[in-house]
Amino acid sequence: MFTIEGIISNLKEVVKTNCVDLIIIDSYADLFTGSMNNSNEVRSYLNMYNNLANQFGITVIFLHHTKKASAGMAPNKNSILGSQGFEAKMRSVLMLTKDDSDESLRHLCVIKNNYLPESSKSMSYVLRFNEYLSFENTGERVRLNELATEEWIEDAKVMQENGLPLREISDRLSKKGFTVSKSTLQRKLN
């Protein structure tokens, strides 16, 4: 559908007359006309989609944006643009971020999921963006806090220039209070 006039009633008709499992809204900000910072307005609006999902047993995915001020920070639910009501209403929130050192890599981060243990939400899934404009899972995982632009990088660069091996750099950074794996160092310094 490409019109927002009467979107809920139009979606109901489409779902009733077709075999629909998934609705993707691109993007939330293009449809929501209220105040994004008003939690009551946000939750009320999202309730219409929640009711639609519950009524027909479908999944609704909203594409949304993060705050510009969150650039360089570790992915977290506070990075979502607008009211906390958006994140609170969602059962699952995923964030896709670019890798700092490899333009072909993206990090898929589960920053909220009511059905997964915390241990499943602490690391990103590293995806390669390919020439077919789709993603391939590399099988790698990276701790979310390692995705932030870290202040230790400059220290690590100096140590690398002085010929220290990655293991030694990692050990020295650890003594300064930074937990940085050898693989993270290799990725960030290359």
Major sheet attributes: 4 strands, antiparallel
Widest sheet: strand ordering: 3-4-5-6
Number of strands: 6
- Overall 3D geometry? elongated
Number of helices: 7
The portion of residues forming beta strands comes to 15-25%
Kindly report the average pLDDT value.
88
Radius of gyration: 21 Å
Oligomer: single chain
End-to-end separation? 44 Å
Unreliable residue stretches: none
* Estimated helix fraction: 25-40%
Tell me the structural class. alpha+beta
N to C succession of SSEs: HEHHEHEEEEHHH
Quick tags:
elongated; alpha+beta; single chain; 190 residues; two-stranded parallel sheet; 4-stranded antiparallel β-sheet
Task: Summarize it.
With about 190 residues, the chain is of the alpha+beta class. The protein is about 35% helix and about 20% strand.
Characterize the structure shown.
The protein has helices at 7-17, 28-31, 39-56, 84-89, 152-161, 166-175, 182-189; strands at 22-26, 59-63, 92-98, 105-113, 123-129, 135-143. The chain has 190 residues and is an alpha+beta fold. Among the domains are: 1-64, no CATH class; 152-189. A hairpin with a 6-residue loop joins strand 3 (92-98) and strand 4 (105-113). Helix 1 runs parallel beside helix 3 and helix 5 (152-161) packs across helix 6. The longest helix is centred in the N-terminal third of the chain and has 18 residues, at 39-56. It is elongated and about 65 Å long. The N and C termini lie far apart (44 Å). The model has no long low-confidence stretch (mean pLDDT 88).
